[in-house]
């Protein structure tokens, strides 16, 4: 079921709900040591990232489902230009950016950032002048492309027309609006700081300010949420005409208020069957409204996919800065502390060179294969089997095709040729007898929409089992290189 699906590379994928449709566990840690080593077999480990995630942790209050590293400023906080907590944090954040080592730092042709994502927290609480300071620091350190996608998570009730216009003048050209629900009762029950009136005001501001690229975020499977409520939220989101909609299934986390009040699968939370129905309803309604379901939790109008999130789904390197964030550079994930005081110590250590973020030459091909499968199968494009074979060899591809054959027959998995036409099960069976024929016939493997996406946990776990029992990976590695 979708309800316990994987968690993403880090929090930039996540709006406030800590959705269960995210991939790869957040590697937030109080330690500054390297989290994981899984260098690409084929990619140059020194490739410079062209994306950056910026964590702005400030919120008015902590929502009942949230376990992100945040700083709660108070329910009435909307003007933060003179708040010392915000001012101090921005200073440390910029120090971290400046202290970060990059491979092409002395190269006049260094790679500029093509995407920047301000996540949180509630980034729209931060004054535009301070956001501008961060962007200027990024430009001086890395460069920022003139055509860069610069995204910001913004919550209703935390910005007005003036602030929105100022953010746009700074270069913010994509907004992720944290609506979550269109029912006053649900907004209150999950501890949101905004109400329904502020939701409609925020949508009006985004539209009147001329933000072309914007998303509405919604949460399914909230306590006491009914099918009628969910249908209403989807309908109102569609009527608002955003270019993008993100739909997340609530995940109950230990240590949160919801974690203390509720048990997954038990009333007043919707049942697993109801959650599946919510997901199916979202897929149907949004596709009927001409939104492309391009990733498990993401829908967009043509040409409005989130470019930043494709960095994660395509397993590309990225910078991350700020409290609790996790970068992925040179095949390594590196996490920052979750607590402010420890984060400041981390930045000091980074500045004096005592943080070990060096690249390890030891390539773990199994970890790499696991990550590639997880990230690829959450997208409509799916897993590129030819590229996968180039990195890991044909024997692993053959094993994956074999294990997923029953799910092709059940309609949960689809194999596609080079023209992205479905390959019949009979052709797959015949091709398994001839490795060359398989390579010719089958180019991609993806999960079906919505049934395959709903079983993503189980289906991706099958791949884990195949990869974990992969015995000949040294020879496959030799074959790939």
UniProtKB/TrEMBL annotation:
InterPro entries in the record, alphabetically?
A: Coproporphyrinogen-III_oxidase, Elp3/MiaA/NifB-like_rSAM, HemN_C, HemW-like, rSAM, rSAM_horseshoe, rSAM_sf
Looking up Gene3D superfamilies in the UniProt record yields: tm_1862 like domain
State the superkingdom.
Answer: Eukaryota
Molecular function (GO) terms for this protein are: 4 iron, 4 sulfur cluster binding; coproporphyrinogen oxidase activity
Q: Which UniProt keywords apply?
A: Oxidoreductase
Q: Which PROSITE patterns match?
A: RADICAL_SAM (PS51918)
Residue ranges occupied by any Radical SAM core domain in the UniProt entry: 44-292
One GO location term (cellular component):
cytoplasm
Q: Which CDD domains match?
A: Radical_SAM (cd01335)
Instruction: Name the Pfam families on file.
Output: HemN_C, Radical_SAM
Q: Which family does it belong to?
A: Belongs to the anaerobic coproporphyrinogen-III oxidase family. HemW subfamily.
NCBIfam families given in the database record: hemN_rel (TIGR00539)
What is the documented function of this protein? Answer: May be a heme chaperone, appears to bind heme. Homologous bacterial proteins do not have oxygen-independent coproporphyrinogen-III oxidase activity. Binds 1 [4Fe-4S] cluster. The cluster is coordinated with 3 cysteines and an exchangeable S-adenosyl-L-methionine.
The molecule here is called Radical S-adenosyl methionine domain-containing protein 1, mitochondrial
